[in-house]
Write a structure and sequence with these properties.
With 181 residues, the chain is mainly alpha-helical. It is built from four helices and three strands.
């Protein structure tokens, strides 16, 4: 058994090779900046309801969503703005806690960083405008049974990051379960 004198261990200190919280917050910041920059471009170039065809299946549009995903609760009287803002703020705190608690789980932390950047981006919209600015409009005829004229609901960079982050969280969990089996 090795003795420890004056609080110094005889074993060399293990080098910390896990990514720091700053890396994950940096990724979240890149997502946030990309989201806010693209929304500023849309607000500066489009009026509410404007649409510009880019390809046969993709348009740039300007849509305001006062609800959540797929415009859930968008027709409510305004209280949903504060509900979704509060959820975003709570999620931000929880995600930062999780990033600090699991720094060695790279895919998990990457996924959380994407979700964090997207959540903060949409919270900023709700605080500044009272709604989220969406502008990516994909449409295909095969979507017509599900969506009006085959148009998938418009979304933004923040929504994309949240979706990719969620898929990464699912993949991370599947990998973790498979390792344990």
């Amino acid at each position: 058994m090795a003795q420890v004198k004056c609080g110094i261990s005889p074993e060399p200190m293990a080098k910390n090779t896990s990514p720091s919280l700053l890396l994950w917050l940096g990724i979240a910041l890149v997502v946030l900046l990309a989201d806010q920059f693209t929304k500023l471009l849309i607000v500066g170039s489009f009026q509410l309801g404007d649409s510009q065809n880019v390809t046969s299946f993709f348009n740039l549009v300007r849509v305001h969503n006062s609800g959540a995903a797929f415009s859930f609760l968008s027709s409510a009287s305004g209280w949903q703005r504060w509900l979704f803002t509060g959820i975003g703020v709570l999620a931000t705190g929880f995600i930062i806690y999780m990033l600090r608690s699991h720094p060695t789980q790279k895919l998990f932390c990457f996924a959380l960083a994407l979700v964090l950047g997207g959540a903060v981006g949409n919270v900023i919209d709700r605080l500044l405008y009272g709604h989220v600015i969406d502008f990516l409009d994909f449409h295909w005829d095969w979507l017509s049974p599900l969506f009006l004229d085959g148009h998938f609901p418009a979304f933004n960079i923040a929504d994309s990051a949240i979706s990719v982050g969620t898929v990464c969280l699912l993949v991370d969990e599947l990998i973790r379960v498979k390792r344990g089996a």
